[in-house]
Design goal:
The protein has ten helices and four strands; from the N terminus they run ααβαααβαααβαβα. With 212 residues, it is an alpha+beta fold. It has a single domain, classed as 3-Layer(aba) Sandwich (NADH Oxidase). The chain has a four-stranded antiparallel sheet with strand order 1-2-4-3, sandwiched between helices. The longest helix has 19 residues. It is globular, with a radius of gyration of 19 Å.
Amino acid sequence: MSNLDFIYKRHSVRKFKDRDVPIEDLKEILKAATYAPSGKNLQNWHFVVIKNKEKINQLAEIVEKKNEELASSTSDEELSKSFRKYVKYHTVFKNAPIVILVYAGPYPITGIDLLKSKGLSNEELEYYSKPSPGIQNIAAAMENLLLAAANMGYGTCWMTGPIYAGKEIENFIGLKKEDYHLAAITPLGVPEDSKIISPPRKPLEDVITIID
């Protein structure tokens, strides 16, 4: 058995058993998320946990409504049809007993004010901002959350697709934290199927470069 088996247990789960997640397990999973690396130790994350089934269904309805609104806004039928078909994937969280909304807070990019004072072009400033360190913090926390959940026998699914309805979801939730915005969503629950199914990965040789 590899010491890294906890990593390979994680896979995207979209169907869940009708079984609650004990609050002790939930807190342990969220604690693991907060131990992710964080630039400047700002920990610019916030987790909203929804256990109320009616509210979870309302979230799904918000996404469905926004999907239809956007799909109807174009005269390109193929584009509209293509966008509509994703709504079933963007609402799979409604099958879970818990939905976790991961919010991202502000993060000052080191040196950006100095770079602006040098009169750099927008293109140059965009280049320096591309790493998005603030969002990297959130991604690290999200990965910790998913790995901890999988290691404890729970299923999750990292979702950003529904964020086109982010504003509507934020208004529905009403989180009062200045300058925080919805960055990702994951359902959480006991998987309906215990079989681990992950899509194939690119060969390692295709994604690494070693410079001696």
